[in-house]
Each structure stands twice: as C-alpha cells, then as structure tokens.
Design a protein that fits this description.
Blueprint (H helix, E strand, L loop, with lengths): L3 E3 L5 E3 L10 H21 L20 H30 L16 H12 L4 H11 L9 H24 L3 H8 L9 H30 L3 H10 L6 H29 L3 H5 L5 H11 L8 H25 L3 H8 L9 H16 L5 H11 L9 H12 L5 H11 L4 H12 L6 H33 L4 H11 L9 H32 L3 H8 L9 H32 L3 H8 L9 H22 L1
Antiparallel strand pairs: 1-2
Helix pairs in contact: 3-4, 4-5, 5-6, 6-7, 7-8, 8-9, 9-12, 11-12, 12-13, 13-14, 14-15, 15-16, 17-18, 17-19, 18-19, 19-20, 19-21, 20-21, 21-22, 22-23, 23-24, 24-25
Length: 621
C-alpha cells in the first residue's frame, strides 16, 4: 500500500515509492503546500484587526483517490484480456491444418506442396500411372528444394512399390512389362541402382531360360528325349518362379505328351510298314492308317511326322487311282480317291482327282451336252491344285468343240451401256471364256479396258464426294474424306489425284489435332512451367506435321530449364570460392553435367579455382 506523509501546510503528499503513473500528483500537492505556508506567513506579519473570531466552515470533502486506480486497473485488465484472446486465436490458427487442395481442378499456379499432396494421395491407389505421375513430379527437384527430403522419402517408397510390381510381372513371365515398370524409376531415386541391377538380372535370366526352352523344343522335334530331359534339369537353376514352377511343370507335361504321341504313331505305322515295303499295301490298309494318323494331337511335334506319313500314304492311294484311270476304270479310280480322308494333307488334291475322273466319265461319248458337262467339271479344279494343268489340257480339248462367240458378243453388248454395273457384268461374262481359245486374247483386252473405265467412273465419284466433305475444313469431315479417297489405289485411274488429296488432308488433320497441344505447351512455357511445356510438346509424335516445330520448342525450353536448374549451383559455388573454400566450390559446381548450357562455364570455374587452390596451398606452406 502507498504511504501518505503530512506536509507542514496540512497537505498530504505521496511517498517516493509510488509507481510512476501516480507521481504527477506530487508537484501539485507541493505547490499547494507552499502557497498555504506563504499565505500563513503574510497573515502573521500583518496586525490582527479587532474583529470577532469567526470559526471557519468545513471545506467540501475531496473526491476519493481510489477511483482513478480502479479505472486504471480495469483498463489494464481489458488490455490483458484482449492480448490473451489474440494469442489464443493465433495458436488455434497456427494449429489448424490447411485445407486440402482440389486435385481435380488444380491450378497451374499451385505450389509444389499442393502438387505433392495430390500426387501422394493418388499414389496410395498403387496404380502404375499414379506412381509414375508422382515420381515425375519430384524427380527433377534439386537438393535445395524445400520439399527435397520429404520427396526423397516418398520416391523411395514409390520406387519400392514399382519394384514389387515388376517382380510380380517377372514371376508371371512378363519380363518385358517388368522392365518397362522398373525403368520408370528415375536416376534421382535412391533405388535407381537396385532397379537397374534387377533389370539386368531379369534379362539375363530370361535369355538363359529362352535358350533352355529352345533347346528343349529342338530335342522334342527330333524325339531326343535324353537331351530334352537335360534341359528340364537346367531349368530349376534359374531365378524367376516363372521358370521353376509354371514352365517346368508345363514342359514336363509336354514331354510326356510327346512320348505318348510318338508311341501311338509307331503303332499306326505298323499297320502298313510291312505291306508298304513289298508294294502290297491295300487301299483299305492305307485309308485306315491315314485316318488314325489324323487323330494325332495337333499340338505336338509328332503331328508333323504324322502328316508326312499321311502325305506319303495318300500319294500311294492317288497312284493306285491314277492306274485305274488309265485303264478307264472310272468307278474304281473314284472309289480309291474317295478313301483319302479330309484330314490328309493332300485331301483337296484327291477331290480334284475325283473331279477329273468325273469329267472324263462325262465327256467320254463326245456329245455336246457331255462335253459341256465335262468342261464344267474340269473347270472346278483350282489353279493351285497339282493336277490343274492336266485338267486344263483336257478342258482345252473339249473347249475346242464348243463355240463361245455368243458369250463374247453378249459381253460386248452389255459393256456398251457404259455404266459401272453394266461394265462389271460384261467383265464377268468375258472372264468365263476359257483360256487358250481364239477369243480369249480379245476378251482379256476388253476386260482390261472395261475395268479401267469402270474404275475411272467409280473413282471420279468417290473423289468428288470426298472433296465436298473436305471443303468444310472440319476434322471429322476430313477424316471421312480421307477414308473415302483411300479406296482409290495409287495404280488405279485418278490414283495420283487421290494420293495428293490424302497427303493434303492428312496434313490438315494433323495440324488440327496437334495445334491445341502445341499451344498449350507454349502457354505453360509463358508461365515458366517449362517441365509441363516440354511434356506437353512431346505428346506430338514423330512424323507429324508439327513435330519439327515442337522439337524446336522442346530444345529451347530444355535449355532454359537446365539453366534454371544449374544456375543456383554455379552461384553457390561462386559464393564458396569468394570465401576461399575452393574445394567445396569445385564439388558444388561439378554437379553440373556435360552437354548442359552452363557446363563450359562450370569447367572454366573448376580450372580457375583449382589453380587458385594450388596457389593458396603454396602460400600456406
């Protein structure tokens, strides 16, 4: 509590121990006291009048001094409360987590923190494209990036997930996909050496496995069971589960199947081997052996051997049928040819033999209807048949007895209509004239002219329709026009015009498709988002019209990006060199890789600081 002292004048003054805010009242009390003392002295020096002593009245009570203090206390409490409230609000504001960014509508101006949060959330799905996107964001961050440490931890985690996915593909036998997945781990990842090492191991292991499998199948093809077994013993020595589990079991089953099938074929051969060696095999024996050999599993190598046997036995049957045909035994020859089953490699040739037998049987009386029947049957023999030439010789003889001028006249009359459908009909009629006939050369020449005319009319219509569509300049119509005009082959009439149109419309389509991509890349570049600009421009594939322009832009942006990445290193190294820390400066600037814009400047700096470091060492010695 504040102590009060009594002044000689009767005024009360505060002690010097009062707080600073109460001291201004002290001078007022002192002045009042002095004035009162002066007044008293003056009064005593003057003669007292003879008057009646008047008792002075009590003065009015002074206001209490506790009220200002109370007001000051209330004021200080109010200020303290406000400051405390602001502190609590600040703590709550700092403790409150920032809202998550809207990753679906992330702005191009978003911070790296927001982008990292988005890709981190996407990478939790474990999908390859999300992991690749996440790694692509942080792989180019320099070590002085504020989020570099966190990014390296996340890149290690994501790279480990990629390696797990790749190893799973290896165990499934898909090394190509595994390598593609592991190759997505960038050089900046802590697991990059492990990924490269595993890729090399997978590829070497896969090559060894493929060589073993190849030797195994080569042994199966020649029924070398001992060599095949040796390859099966080498397979478990490989690393991937694919070879040691799936492939090993599959190859064991395949070898067992080959052995069983080979034994089955040997039993079939026993049906005809004895009789065949004596040229006494009957058509029935041969047909039975052919039918059983056809049942050999088509998925085995023994099937090739069985088909060779079928072919040999079927040839014997055809030879027997040919002998019967020479003897004019048409019925017997056809019956033997019919014994060749559908599964035989020369079944179609057997059917052609039957046609030839029937044609000769039909034309044997030389009557016109019979000749026409024989000619019709003989023409059913296809050109790829081994007996086609023999059938044509027979048909030519029969054709010489039949006049075909009426057919040529009919074709010529129809062609005069000069419409595509009429020309097509005339061509069909003229093509029915047999080869080696006098009218055939004339027919061939007319057919060529009619085809040329028909194609010219059709192609002119196609080109006109396509040009009408392309004139709109819309990409959908250009593609439709391109599809239509592509039906015109280069060697056809109007083929040159169609190729020019294809080239021009293809160019227009490519520009319409790729121009937005290039514009977007330039927009990114204008916003100094060079990485996105480069990635966007690279979407324009090689061979496209705007690819050259995109590559020029990519080169420019790449140089700008490299300068932006390496300039901090050079500046940091210069700062260290200024401090005389040449070794650390050299280590810092050595991080700038060759073939980058600032590499030459870095080399010059290294050479200069190396010389300065040597001079400094000599001086210190």
């Amino acid at each position: 509590m504040t102590k009060k002292k009594s002044h000689p004048s009767g005024a009360k003054v505060e002690d010097a121990s009062l707080p600073p805010r109460s001291k201004p009242h002290v001078p007022q009390a002192t002045v009042q006291g002095k004035s009162r003392r002066s007044a008293t002295k003056v009064a005593k020096s003057q003669p007292k009048p003879n008057v009646k002593k008047v008792v002075p009245k009590k003065t009015a009570k002074r206001p209490s001094r506790w009220l200002p203090r109370l007001l000051w206390s209330f004021l200080w409490l109010t200020v303290a409360g406000m400051v405390g409230s602001m502190g609590v609000a600040s703590v709550l504001w700092l403790a409150k987590l920032p809202p998550l960014p809207n990753c679906d509508r992330l702005s191009s101006l978003a911070s790296d923190r927001e982008r990292l949060d988005c890709v981190q959330a996407a990478a939790k799905s474990g999908k390859l494209e999300h992991l690749e996107m996440a790694i692509g964001l942080i792989k180019t961050w320099p070590d002085n990036h504020p989020l570099y440490g966190e990014g390296q931890q996340l890149m290690r985690e994501w790279s480990r997930t990629l390696l797990e996915m790749a190893n799973q593909k290896v165990d499934e036998g898909n090394v190509k996909v595994a390598v593609e997945i592991a190759s997505k781990i960038p050089l900046a990842s802590p697991l990059y050496p492990d990924a490269q090492s595993q890729i090399a191991d997978w590829q070497q292991d896969w090559l060894r496995g493929e060589r073993i499998i190849k030797k195994f199948h080569q042994a199966l093809k020649v029924q070398n069971w001992q060599q095949a077994s040796a390859q099966l013993q080498a397979l478990p020595l490989l690393n991937a589960n694919y070879w040691r589990q799936e492939q090993l079991d599959e190859l064991r089953r395949r070898m067992q199947l080959e052995k069983q099938t080979w034994n089955k074929l040997k039993n079939i051969r026993q049906l005809v081997e004895g009789a065949e060696s004596q040229n006494a095999a009957t058509p029935e024996q041969l047909a039975k052996a052919i039918a059983q050999a056809a049942q050999i599993n088509s998925k085995t190598y023994v099937r090739d051997v069985a088909q060779a046997d079928q072919n040999r036995w079927s040839r014997i049957l055809l030879q027997i049928a040919s002998d019967r045909l020479l003897k004019k035994d048409f019925t017997g020859a056809e019956a033997i040819a019919l014994k060749i089953p559908v599964s035989s490699p020369i079944y179609q040739e057997g059917r052609d033999w039957i046609l030839l037998v029937r044609a000769q049987a039909a034309a044997k009386n030389n009557a016109l209807p019979a000749l026409l029947d024989g000619l019709t049957i003989a023409r059913r023999v296809k050109p790829e048949s081994p007996i086609y030439e023999q059938a044509q010789i027979m048909a030519a003889g029969w054709q010489s007895q039949v006049q075909d001028w009426w057919q040529w006249e009919l074709a010529s009359t129809i062609a005069q209509i000069d419409q595509p459908w009429a020309l097509e009909m005339a061509i069909n009629q003229a093509e029915q004239i047999a080869a080696n006939r006098p009218q055939r050369d004339l027919a061939d020449s007319a057919i060529a002219n009619w085809q040329l005319t028909k194609q010219q009319v059709e192609n002119r219509l196609i080109l006109a329709q396509a040009q009408k569509l392309a004139a709109t300049g819309k990409i959908t119509n250009l593609k439709a026009a391109l599809f239509q005009v592509s039906q015109i082959l280069p060697d056809q009439p109007l083929g040159g015009e169609s190729q020019q149109a294809i080239a021009e419309w293809s160019r227009q389509i490519q520009i319409l498709e790729d121009q937005p991509t290039l514009d977007l890349a330039r927009t990114f570049a204008q916003k100094n988002n060079l990485s996105s600009a480069i990635q966007t421009a690279q979407q324009i594939r090689p061979g496209r019209v705007l690819r050259g322009e995109a590559e020029e832009a990519i080169i420019t942006w790449t140089l700008q990006l490299q300068i932006a990445e390496d300039k901090p290193l050079l500046e940091a190294a210069n700062a260290l060199a200024t401090q005389g820390r040449f070794s650390l400066a050299i280590q810092t600037v050595a991080q700038i890789k060759p073939n980058r814009p600032l590499y030459d400047e870095a080399k010059e700096a290294i050479a200069r600081w190396t010389a300065q470091s040597g001079v400094k060492s000599l001086r210190s010695n």
